[in-house]
Design brief:
Shape: globular
Number of strands: 7
Strand content: 5-15%
Distance between the termini: 28 Å
Helix content: 40-55%
Radius of gyration: 18 Å
Number of helices: 8
Largest sheet: 7 strands, parallel
């Protein structure tokens, strides 16, 4: 299927590895030009070159922290009028809510709620004027089924979800859609760190915890950044113009609810 986005321009955040890289690579295979961001310059440049060689598209790498005003300004200077925005940022650490103070909460809200809102605010009017825009926020399956040890993430990402629910209904008439993509257990650095935390809490090895986690997923395995990226690419397609304000799981059937 031709997704109808060849020649479009995308800003993909936190794209040097993991789910962000998966999204960037899938968009590039559809002929989308990229500006990708991440904090680690070396890994980011390596990813940019890898995608250029594999897909033959323009890829600009902007190293910086997207959760800061300076990092957002650098990214938007490189891509001031994107047709596609993929919001992504590392999640806050796991732990017991009794250990978290105001500083920890504000950091989580800044990274996983306010940063995507600021980026949406910066680009959405241009998308409306051009009559095309696709915004995908990478959140978490915890929005549907909260994860006890990820209270900071549960709270901050749910705040973003509520905001998007209202805005997405106002932009869709202009062919600008906003959706949230909710990853379940994808074997990325993020899940590995959470598994290491669980291993320490349970007094088990990482391999034991990893095996148990995989068995709990109906699919019997962890998801991959590549299949996650393809899901994202479809949400950014011309064909997805009737999908907006949705929280779309990709979790191997792990969420047990009907709705």
């Amino acid at each position: 299927m031709d997704l109808g986005i060849r020649g479009k321009r995308a800003l993909v955040c936190a794209a040097s590895k993991g789910l962000g890289k998966g999204c960037a690579a899938s968009l590039a295979r559809e002929g989308v030009e990229l500006v990708i961001t991440a904090r680690g310059r070396d890994a980011l440049e390596a990813t940019a070159e890898e995608i250029r060689e594999a897909c033959g598209v323009k890829v600009a790498a902007v190293a910086g922290d997207i959760t800061t005003p300076e990092g957002r300004a650098q990214a938007l200077a490189a891509c001031p009028a994107p047709d596609i925005l993929v919001n992504n940022a590392g999640g806050p650490p796991p732990g017991d809510f009794r250990q978290w103070g105001r500083e920890e909460w504000l950091k989580a809200i800044e990274a996983n709620m306010l940063t995507p809102i600021e980026l949406i605010k910066a680009v959405v009017d241009g998308m409306i004027a051009r009559k095309f825009g696709r915004i995908v926020n990478i959140t978490s399956s915890a929005v549907k089924a909260p994860i006890p040890e990820l209270g900071l993430s549960n709270g901050a990402r749910s705040g973003l979800t509520g905001f998007v629910a209202g805005l997405a209904r106002r932009t869709v008439a202009h062919n600008v859609t906003i959706n949230n993509l909710l990853p379940g257990r994808m074997w990325t650095d993020r899940l590995k760190s959470n598994a290491e935390y669980s291993a320490r809490q349970q007094g088990k090895s990482l391999d034991e915890v990893k095996e148990t986690m995989a068995k709990q997923i109906p699919a019997g395995r962890f998801g991959t950044p590549e299949e996650f990226g393809d899901y994202c690419a479809y949400l950014c397609s011309a064909q997805a113009s009737y999908v907006t304000g949705q929280n779309l799981l990709i979790d191997g059937g792990n969420y047990p609810g009907t709705f």
